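Section 3.1 - Work completed
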Amino acid sequence: MGTLLRVVRSRHPGVRIEPHQRYPDALCDQLLDGEIDLGLCRGMRHVRGLARR
């Protein structure tokens, strides 16, 4: 994740980045509710309405 954050900060220095750990259910709920913009996950179930790449 460090590399990803370095790239974002170098390309968009004004973007506020706040990494926080979430449990899978909370991560899904907060993404769907628009409370957070990006979630990094592994081993999570597929949730309708969320794109995985």
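Second construct:
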Amino acid sequence: MGHLRRFLFQQAVFVEKLLNKEVKLAHDLLQKANSTIDKEGIQELQNEAFLKLIDFVYYNNNYYRSLFNEHGLLPESFQDIKDLSKIPLLTKDIIKSKRDQLLTPSIPDAECLTRTSGGTTGEPIYIDVNKQARINELYFYYRGLNWMGWKPGDTMVKFFGGSLSKNNYPTLKSRIKRWVSGEVFIPAFDLNSDTAPEILQLIKNQGPCFMQGYVSSIYTLALHAKQLNFKGLKIKGAFTTAEQLPQDQAELIREVFQCDVKGFYGCSEMNCLGFQKDMDGPYIIPDEILKINETTHPETGIEHSFLLTSLYNYRTPLINYLNGDNGSLGNSDPKYSTIDELYGRTGDLFVRRNGSYISSIVATQTMQITELTHKIKRYQLVQNDYDKVEFKYQLFDEAELGEDELQKILVMYKERLGDEFVITPLLTENFISSKNKKHRLMINLMSNK
């Protein structure tokens, strides 16, 4: 079955190349990248795309033409992608307030899809993405999955927002497309103790397969599988998305499903940002279609704030875009740039009275140091005021946490957060989730006051 799907997948790509110029351009770019043997070759592709983008936005985009003129910039002011530093930062608030100016009028609406992402005030922002950018992302997404171990023809079980009771394959065309791509969609929102046996059986029926979804979804499924002592699954790999991957949760997923657990990094505005080739390894950045830099956040002072530049989105050009994520960049791969560590979202950072911020990576690092993760099933830190933090936690069934062990956790968090914080423990099964039902490890409720 896998060989047939792989053959049909390859034939579909071949036909699309003949019928669709954007697909051919994406395929050609991928072929050039794959035939390039070193960083210099990839950087040449990146620089070429960057200079074309700069030339395009100056002559076709109202926002960037005005911005460049204001700062005395011309297309000739840019020699390579290092000159990105000449361009002022693009924030979510700018995108929200200047959406009309950011839209390139020469690219018709019919060629674009609109994506949404949260703004700093919680109001969504809208990003229109042209066809070439979307197809490039799709091609390099599949290459990233290939890096992680997936091959065309392999079954991929994907957790998504939806319901078991809904018809998730409404047309014959969509059913055929899902079958050829090997994708099986499972509603993450319905995953609970009642539905877990049905979902696990559905995955078992797929035979050898990969899984992809939020960390919280795959981790929760692993917990249910362990509790039910469910046998017969043949998971070849688990790919987590959209959230930090705590080491203790990765280890439990690996233990239960007997497979490597790797992270895929993307955001609403740009879906294809990084892939882990190795478990616990760095995220490999597809430098051919984007550039990631670091900066100190101009408002919060947080270091290692990401600046994203999409090299092919000409409809809503995102250049030096401050997307709200934080991490440490590196060059540990011989061919590509890397994200050596993801720290989390700016919105999940705690704030001190003096205005300084605390990275959300404190949550996972501290819990691992306590060596008590085998007892704590789920946890969350919630900041309600400048000096007040609630430590919410849930224990594994039959696990007991002694008072001395609880105090050890609280003392360690206090050492890392600061003496000013009063940390109150709460044993509970109720945690705060995002609108997409993602489990967040650190939550700052100060903005709600």
